[in-house]
Amino acid sequence: MENSRWYKSGTALLREIDNAKTGPGMALLWFLGQMGFVIKINETVIYIDTLLNDFSSEKEGVRRVYAPPFNTAAGVRADYFISTHNHGDHMNLDTILPQARANSKTRFIVPSPWRTILTGAGIEEDRVIGAAEGQPLSLSAETSLFPVAAAHTEYEQDNNGNYTCLGYVIRGSGIGIYHAGDTMVTPRLIQTLETLKPIDIAILPVNGGDWERTSKGIIGNMHVEDAVKLVRALEIDLAVPAHYDMMNNNSINPAHFADEIYRTCPQQKYHIFALGEQFCYCK
To answer: What is the pTM of this model?
Structure first.
């Protein structure tokens, strides 16, 4: 795996995340590849869907096309590690368990059906929070998390009626950030997000799906066109495409997203991240 794609990585990136200061009406974001982001808001540090191990496969070879920016063996300063669903590029014990061992202050949020995977692997019960749609969570005195059901091709529930795939709206410092996880666009999703407006930033998967990937068991996401329509329908201020870059068998060119914006709504603000780049959003 080559590691030349990173704008910033290693100790330099970790130091930047640790030392960066936020203020009122301000959020900081860093892109760690695929759907992985670090979000710092109200000085709360959130790692969401971050894959920091090599994710290799004997059958398929090394699937990720660039090395992680750092690993969690020594622990990173994080208040929360959040996962949207139980797929290896979103919730991976080889990333989560070293962090749990190295930093006892980090708490973990996963969809309720997957909570026992983390506790069964040895993470203390009081450090693992099961998330469910319609049940907001308080991350700090100033920051809240709103779980939103996600249709990773379709809506799936466990025997207790809890959704297995979620997105999240993070709200703090007067800013709303929607991290979609892996999902299609559905009328139900739009209706739910309408109730959580205003949403200032939407982080959306844009790798779509096709028959070839489906035949290999690769589950799809929204296409570029649907992602842009969601942004327009919900009057999102800043659109961020993701889930297009890490895996050698499930990637697209994010320029397609930029082209669709330019073609249909050139006034729409968007940002295509470089790996390890810091982005400051001010409202």
So the answer is: 0.95
